[in-house]
Amino acid sequence: MAFKIKYNPDLDSLTSKELKLLEKACEAVRNFVSKSDKINQTNYKTRDAHVTTYLTLKGTFVANQTFEEHHIFSRQELECLIRISNAHMKLVSKKRAIPAYGFSVKISDDNQTIANFPLVNFPLFPINNVSQFLKIFIAINRFFSGNVLQKFWNLIKVARNFILISPAFFHRSFMVEVFKFLKNRNNFILSFDYHSIGVYRLGNHLVKLKLVPKNVPNKVDENRIDYSIQNYLKENDYELELMAQYCYDLKKQPVNQLNTIWKNSEFASIGTIRITELIDKNNQWVENLSFNPFENIEELQPVGRIQKLRDEAYKTSFATRKNNNL
Question: Record's superkingdom (predicted)?
Fold first, then answer.
C-alpha cells in the first residue's frame, strides 16, 4: 500500500536572493494597482491579474462524508462564493477573448473563511525557476504601469527571460496539455475543468485540486461570455465536483515542478459545489474581495515555492486596492 507524502516546510523555502526579488515584485504590484484605474479606465483600483469579472456566484459546498478527511471541514454544508474571471492584467472584452479563465472559490462558515481556491482552466504552469518567474512578473507589471521608455525596456526584459525559460515549455506534459487546450479553446466557459496551479495541504498531506462540472455542454450559442453564463444558469442547475489528487512519490508527483502532470495518482471526490444565486458583477463589494489562499485554515494551506510567492503579492494587491477604494 502506498503511503501519502506528508507536508514538510522545506517544500516552501525561498533563498535570500528570491526574497529580495519578491520585495521588488510587491513594489511593482503596488505601483501597478495604484495606477490601475487609469490603466483600465475605471473609477476604482483593480487587481493586478484576473481583472475582468465575468460573473460572481453564490452557492453551497457539501463535503463528501465518505471522503477520509472530510472532518477538515467544520460542517458538511458550507457557504460558497465564486468569481469567474479572465487572467489578463487589463480589462478585456466580455466577448470572445483569450480563453485563460479563472474560477476562484471561497468556502466559508458564517463569514469565517475556510478556504480560498484560485483555480484556472489550464492544469500546468511553465515556470519552475522562482527567480526567473519573479523577474518576468516584475517586468510585466512595470511594462503596464510605466511610460513609453519603461515599456520598451521592460518588454525586452520579458522577452529575454522568456527565452531563458523556454525549455520548460517543451516538457512533454506541458506540450500535451497545450494541444488539448488549443483544441478546446472555444468551449463554453462553464464546461472547463478548473485546476489548482500548485499544491495544497489536505490535513497533513499534499494534493492537487480540480473542479469538474457535471453535465455541462461544451458549446453554447451566446458569444458574450457573461451573458452565456447568465443564460445557462437561468435554465439549468450548475454543479461541480471538487476533487483531490494525492502525492505519494515526489518524483512521480513533484511539488515544485509545475510544468508536469502528476502520474500514478487518481483523483478522489472531496465534495460538491452547487450554485444557488447570481451576484451583480458591478457590485463594488465583489471587486474588493480577496481570494488569497494563505487565508485558508492551516489544513488547507498552499504548498510550494511558486505558491509561496502568492502570499505577499496577494496581500500587497489587496491592501493597495482596499486603501484606495475606500
Answer: Bacteria
Q: Tell me the three state secondary structure of residue 1.
A: coil
**H-only helix segments in 146-200:** 148-169, 172-183
Q: For the chain, which residues make up each domain, given as ranges?
A: 9-324
Measuring CA to CA, which residue among 284, 290, 212 is closest to residue 245?
212
Backbone torsions φ then ψ of 108, nearest 5 degrees: -145, 165
Residues 6+ apart with CB under 8 A from 183: none
- Angstrom distance (rounded) from CA 307 to CA 318: 17
> Each residue's pLDDT tens digit in the chain (326 positions)?
579 999 999 999 999 999 999 999 999 999 999 999 999 999 888 999 999 999 999 999 999 988 878 789 888 999 999 999 999 989 888 887 789 999 999 999 988 999 999 999 999 999 999 999 999 999 999 999 988 888 899 999 888 888 888 888 888 889 999 999 999 999 999 999 999 989 999 999 999 999 999 999 999 998 899 999 999 999 999 999 999 999 999 999 999 999 999 999 999 999 999 999 998 766 777 777 889 999 999 999 999 999 999 899 999 999 998 777 65
**CB burial class (10 A; 0-12, 13-18, 19+) of residue 186?**
exposed
- This prediction's pTM: 0.94
| Cβ neighbour number for residue 64 with a 10 Å cutoff | 18
CA separation for the pair 231, 147 (Å, rounded):
41
The grid coordinates of residue 141 equal 507589471
d(Cα 38, Cα 204) in Å, to the nearest integer?
44
| CA 291 vs CA 36, 228, 247, 288: distances in Å | 19, 24, 24, 10
- Spatial contact of 84 and 56, defined as CB atoms under 8 Å apart: yes
Residue 235 φ/ψ, nearest 5 degrees: -105, -10
Cell of 156: 525586452
Q: Pull the grid cell for residue 193.
A: 475543468
Distance separating alpha carbons of residues 173 and 259, to the nearest angstrom: 7
Fold adopted by 9-324: Catalase HpII,  Chain A, domain 1 (2.40.180)
